[in-house]
Amino acid sequence: MEMLTFDAVVIGGGSAGYAAARALVAGGAAVAVVDSAPELGGLCILRGCMPTKALLHAAELRHALEEAKHWGIHPGEVQIDIAALFGRKAALIEQFASYRRGQLETGKFQLLRARASFVDAHTLQLSDGRQVRAGHIVLATGSKVARLPLPVLETIGCKTSDDLVDCANLPASLIVLGGGAVGLEFAQFYSRLGTRVSVIQRNPQILRDFDVDAAAEVEKAFRREGIEVFTGTRLLDARKSADQSEIFFDQVGSPGSARWLSAETVLHGMGRVPNLDGLNLSAAGVTCESGGIDTNARQQSSVDHIYAAGDCCGPYEIVHLAIQQGEVAAHNILKPSTPRSMDYRVLLSVVFTEPQAAQVGLTEKEAKRRGLAYVAASYPFNDHGKSMILGCREGLVKLIASRADGEILGATCVGPQGGELIHEIAVAMAKRMTVHEFVQVPHYHPTLAEIWTYPAEDLAAQLGA
């Protein structure tokens, strides 16, 4: 049996894995990347961030044409060529994927197209019959769609986000199971192209990680656009009837609310879980008590020389963090005497609905949970000049600051270009600015960005000079 030996082996060639491999090679290590996926590129490029944002842009264009009537502009009936729409998406994704393939195939590391399984803490068995031995191993195997909560749901042919990004079909009706980022983005995409859409969310609010007031603004926008939203639900049953799939559910605390809802297509948008299939982690002594691979702030697993990065360990399924985790793991392998740790203080999150929902740092409910002494202030987009011109009817910005010294602890933005606007506060938080310092930053008028000055001035007044 052929045995290959390297300083480090990275399992997975997605965002986290490639970042780790690139950094390790730059540090002089002999590296192999093991990837068994049918296509190289990783979730973000092939089935996640990039294809969904491309599809959402198309839906935004269609919606903008419909909204043009408010300005006396009547473009006429809008025709949708769904095959061409998905063709444009596919062409864009191929550009991104081909670049990543080139990086993996021509990188200064050895690319092994095979599945890997631990034999022991330093040895991997590959599906092509070879074995690999390394001083350090980085696990970056990504995630997979979570199992459905009811076994009967498996029998009605639920689609996943992996299915829909490549499905050039426009169903007449759609039920979305789940009110998180994936479910809501697909819900609005299909709704804006003419599909009748219903969202069924288990949590009492959509976007459960956001503050209630922020999530409510997105829900209002959805309802205004004709999307049904059911929150606080409990899935009870499902069945297939002719060309329809039917979901039986009720709303907790609402007697008599049980009902059947039918649609041509059902989307399973209830999250993803770490992809640990076939790794035989127990042979290496790697623990997964958290559900994913347990890691410390240095990205080390329970075995000192084995690291993990990205969705397979969490705690967040966010690409820029996966890249950062891969780089931190690589640094700590190369330079253990000067270790680096992950810091999630300036944690960013963006949901690309319209309005976009974005947050950085602490939410108000998290500040309360931690028992922090804080002050908060918000301001609505529908009372702000530039956003009124753009026709904004929902949305808000919110700032949270320390009551003790005024340092900005977090912010939320639900509104136009929220994913862009939130970065202004991310920069302020990275430099640990106070609201008193932030209000001194000039903002051009009229711009969307100047809306941040209103809650900042409110907080500065609350806290005094």
Question: The CATH topology of the largest domain is what?
Answer: FAD/NAD(P)-binding domain
Q: Please, what is the average pLDDT?
A: 96
**Number of helices in the DSSP assignment:** 13
Distance between the first and last residues' Cα: 73 Å
In percent terms, what proportion of residues is strand? 15-25%
Uncertain segments of ≥5 residues (pLDDT<50)? none
Give the CATH architecture of the largest domain. 3-Layer(bba) Sandwich
The value of Rg in angstroms is 24 Å
**What's the story with the biggest beta sheet?**
7 strands, mixed
CATH superfamily of the largest domain: FAD/NAD(P)-binding domain
What does this structure look like?
By secondary structure, the protein is α/β, with parallel strands linked by helices. The protein folds into 3 domains: 3-145 and 273-334, FAD/NAD(P)-binding domain (3-Layer(bba) Sandwich); 153-270, 3-Layer(bba) Sandwich (FAD/NAD(P)-binding domain); 348-463, 2-Layer Sandwich (Enolase-like, domain 1), CATH 3.30.390. The chain has 13 helices and 22 strands. It starts with a strand and ends with a helix.
Topology:
Blueprint: E1 3-11, H1 15-26, E2 31-34, H2 43-46, H3 49-67, H4 82-105, E3 110-112, E4 116-120, E5 123-126, E6 131-139, E7 143-145, E8 159-160, H5 161-164, E9 173-177, H6 181-192, E10 196-200, H7 212-224, E11 228-230, E12 233-241, E13 244-251, E14 259-263, E15 265-268, E16 272-274, E17 306-308, H8 319-334, E18 348-351, E19 356-361, H9 364-369, E20 374-380, H10 385-389, E21 396-402, E22 408-415, H11 418-430, H12 435-438, H13 453-463
